[in-house]
Amino acid sequence: MKTIFLVTALLIIIGCKNQKKFEYEVKEYWGENDSEKDKILRTKYKVYSQGFDTIFYLTNYYESGKLKSKVVMKNDLLIEIDLVLDTLGRKMKFGNFKNGNGYVIRYSSFDGFPENEGLYVN
Description:
It is a single chain. By secondary structure, the chain is mainly β. The protein has one domain. It has one helix and eight strands; from the N terminus they run H-E-E-E-E-E-E-E-E. The protein has one helix at residues 2-18, and strands at 20-30, 40-50, 53-61, 67-74, 77-84, 95-98, 101-107, 114-120. The strands form two sheets. The chain has a five-stranded antiparallel sheet with strand order 1-2-3-4-5. Mean pLDDT is 79; it is low at 1-15.
């Protein structure tokens, strides 16, 4: 009887851990004092919980309103870089980065020029 209970409890825990649950979406804008119609999106992120982990899908924009980058973070750590664009919308080299490891080039939020670069581990 104890074995059946433990197996059932384990299956429930595993099922809950692997299930993605939408939590919330946040939008941040350039210029705090702009009118509602003049606001330009700065960052948008969706946050999900997956078991004990929190997954962030971040989309960043330049002050012009053009798309800058899309990245995925897990528990506040960079996991994946999907896309990096310059201010004209051209794809930019962002390094060799997979599964939270690799070389990354970070670009300025204002002008799109390289700001810093380095090796990410875990």
